[in-house]
Amino acid sequence: IQKLCDRVASSTLLDDRRDAVRALKSLSKKYRLEVGIQAMEHLIHVLQTDRSDSEIIGYALDTLYNVISNDLEEEEQEENLPKQVDDLGSQFTEIFIKQQENVTLLLTLVEEFDFHVRWPGVKLLTSLLKQQGPQVQQIILVSPMGVSRLMDLLADSREVIRNDGVLLLQQLTKSNAAIQKIVAFENAFERLLDIITEEGNSDGGIVVEDCLLLLQNLLKNNNSNQNFFKEGSYIQRMKPWFEVGDDNCGWSAQKVTNLHLMLQLVRVLVSPTNPPGATSSCQKAMFHCGLLQQLCTILMATGVPADILTETINTVSEVIRGCQMNQDYFASVNAPSNPPRPAIVVLLMSMVNERQPFVLRCAVLYCFQCFLYKNQKGQGEIVSTLLPSTIDATGNSVSAGQLLCGGLFSTDSLSNWCAAVALAHALQENATLKEQLLRVQLATSIGNPPVSLLQQCTNILSQGSKVQTRVGLLMLLCTWLSNCSIAVTHFLHNPANIPFLTGQIAENLGEEEQLVQGLCALLLGISIYYNDNSLENYRKEKLKQLIEKRIGRENFIEKLGFISKHELYSRAAQKPQPSFSSPDHMMFDHEFTKLVKELEGVISKAIYKSSEEDKKEEEVKKTLEQHDNIVTHYKKVIREQDQELEELKQTINTLTSQNEQLQATVTQQVSQIQQHKDQYNLLKVQLGKDTQHHNSHSDTFQMNGIQVEEVSKLKEELEEWK
């Protein structure tokens, strides 16, 4: 190696130098360390001085690639080589990029069209980015036209260079927003979508996968690029990706991977973590171009692999979340069964079916939650299927409400939890429905009187079922009772409920039960905070005394704090999608964590308030209500006055227009009269002349006879006009 390095450094003949570099290349795989240490400088010197000879440049680039890249070592890792090789690559990369001009030189070489220079150049640059990403990105960013030059690789007609160019850009755009923007504005979306189409969309090979990964890099968490993607009408070009046939069996692993990435790309654009305005405009675009409709087709197609189906459900969820137009469309989708059933019902069947895979059930729950998110109309439709008046007596078709009730009281704790959370979402921030749900009666067993849904939930709680079931039911009850005094009164009406809650909170139980204790404390707190004192035995004051006596305030507050300290609580608080590593981790719902955050403080305050403070607060509330009533009254008066004003304005407008019409008529008539006057004067003058003429010609006396008649006629006419 030493000898070869000397030859590279000192030979005057290009052929000798070329042979020496070729020899180094052949040694560089086996003796990576030695070649790296001794030859690096000489090889860089060759790149600078021998630009005219593509062959020697190609060998030099290959040798540097072998020294710097860990790819070869990863293949040999199975033979249990020492781990130090991993560091070799990054150490050599550091040496190479210490001189920034080395990277700039490499960028110039990548511009060469010669295959033997361009291809190894691309591979070397990719390897440098893999080893020391942020530093190399910085150098490329500051070198003139650095990023733009690399974009040309996507237009190379040689597929191997184009494909490696995609891999290079993947590394280049990793977590660097500035580079992502430049790449996007250099027309990357257009080119990548073209490549995906050329390769056959989801049926394409690994190239499609690489293009999708690059698109994901460009769009994820990058609002300006997402906006650019939407404005450029690229969302419309995603629709053909999801066209599936009737027969979906036997998909290749690559097709599944591609579709997975395509679905993730849709989700990147409508993620709940994006700014609401951006998400909303993407959701609308997806509806208008038919992408949502296409996804719903996959949802209802037969033979789609389970993991694709799950991801499709998650994608549809985020495309409809909080977007009324899309939610309405989703409510109208029917499954191609006989008779056709609403897609929502078919999905809920999977959710409460314990034989379905866990991830699929989570996805359906998410879909249902997104359908109800900020959708009062949808919430009303779901709750109405539970109300006595609308239940289908024939029992032919099963409704969403019946499925949820079935899930709530089945023997499978996972179904109980999912159904409870789904029902809680139907009541979210909707006081009218919380009251309506109190009317729901359930037939428990033949011969027994029906029980209210609220009562049945508390009955199951007190039977000591699984923790998961109880947590689900407690979350439902807390959501139901919060902000709804009537529901609180119904709950307190059952004499068994308060003793059960205080009993649960007062006991000292193990780790598992602490969560249930915390939720019982929250429910009791809600029963105090939203209590309108309509039940004498359960007035706020009496309930507080009960806590003081049976549990102790400090103990109560400590138990209440168990909820937000739980690790599963903080995990659920992070994002709306329910994702749990295993079924027994399924404890908290995202929306519920918001409710806890909101109520924890106010309940703690309410517990410590004295009865005087409570009275004061009641008085303040009453005066506020009176104020509100006065304000409402005045608003009504103002509204009426507004209406009167509006009517008067309209009357004035009508009268004004009538007046204008009459004025116009008068003006017209005046001008007509003037015309007739003029005509009359003219005739008069003519008449005068004629009379003189006839006086001198007495022989034409007969004519005069006629004239006299005419004159009298004219006089009459004149009178008339006057």
UniProtKB/TrEMBL annotation:
<dbReference type="Pfam" id="PF04869">
    <property type="entry name" value="Uso1_p115_head"/>
</dbReference>
<keyword id="KW-0333">Golgi apparatus</keyword>
<feature type="repeat" description="ARM">
    <location>
        <begin position="38"/>
        <end position="71"/>
    </location>
</feature>
<dbReference type="GO" id="GO:0006888">
    <property type="term" value="P:endoplasmic reticulum to Golgi vesicle-mediated transport"/>
</dbReference>
<dbReference type="GO" id="GO:0048280">
    <property type="term" value="P:vesicle fusion with Golgi apparatus"/>
</dbReference>
<feature type="coiled-coil region">
    <location>
        <begin position="631"/>
        <end position="679"/>
    </location>
</feature>
<keyword id="KW-0597">Phosphoprotein</keyword>
<dbReference type="GO" id="GO:0005829">
    <property type="term" value="C:cytosol"/>
</dbReference>
<dbReference type="GO" id="GO:0048211">
    <property type="term" value="P:Golgi vesicle docking"/>
</dbReference>
<dbReference type="GO" id="GO:0006886">
    <property type="term" value="P:intracellular protein transport"/>
</dbReference>
<keyword id="KW-0175">Coiled coil</keyword>
<dbReference type="GO" id="GO:0000139">
    <property type="term" value="C:Golgi membrane"/>
</dbReference>
<dbReference type="Pfam" id="PF18770">
    <property type="entry name" value="Arm_vescicular"/>
</dbReference>
<keyword id="KW-0813">Transport</keyword>
<keyword id="KW-0931">ER-Golgi transport</keyword>
<keyword id="KW-0007">Acetylation</keyword>
<dbReference type="GO" id="GO:0005795">
    <property type="term" value="C:Golgi stack"/>
</dbReference>
<comment type="similarity">
    <text>Belongs to the VDP/USO1/EDE1 family.</text>
</comment>
<dbReference type="InterPro" id="IPR006953">
    <property type="entry name" value="Vesicle_Uso1_P115_head"/>
</dbReference>
<dbReference type="GO" id="GO:0005783">
    <property type="term" value="C:endoplasmic reticulum"/>
</dbReference>
<dbReference type="InterPro" id="IPR011989">
    <property type="entry name" value="ARM-like"/>
</dbReference>
<keyword id="KW-0653">Protein transport</keyword>
<feature type="domain" description="Vesicle tethering protein Uso1/P115-like head">
    <location>
        <begin position="326"/>
        <end position="607"/>
    </location>
</feature>
<dbReference type="GO" id="GO:0012507">
    <property type="term" value="C:ER to Golgi transport vesicle membrane"/>
</dbReference>
<keyword id="KW-0963">Cytoplasm</keyword>
<protein>
    <recommendedName>
        <fullName>General vesicular transport factor p115</fullName>
    </recommendedName>
</protein>
<dbReference type="InterPro" id="IPR000225">
    <property type="entry name" value="Armadillo"/>
</dbReference>
<dbReference type="InterPro" id="IPR024095">
    <property type="entry name" value="Vesicle_P115"/>
</dbReference>
<dbReference type="InterPro" id="IPR041209">
    <property type="entry name" value="P115_Arm_rpt"/>
</dbReference>
<dbReference type="InterPro" id="IPR016024">
    <property type="entry name" value="ARM-type_fold"/>
</dbReference>
<dbReference type="GO" id="GO:0045056">
    <property type="term" value="P:transcytosis"/>
</dbReference>
<comment type="function">
    <text>General vesicular transport factor required for intercisternal transport in the Golgi stack; it is required for transcytotic fusion and/or subsequent binding of the vesicles to the target membrane. May well act as a vesicular anchor by interacting with the target membrane and holding the vesicular and target membranes in proximity.</text>
</comment>
<keyword id="KW-0472">Membrane</keyword>
<keyword id="KW-0677">Repeat</keyword>
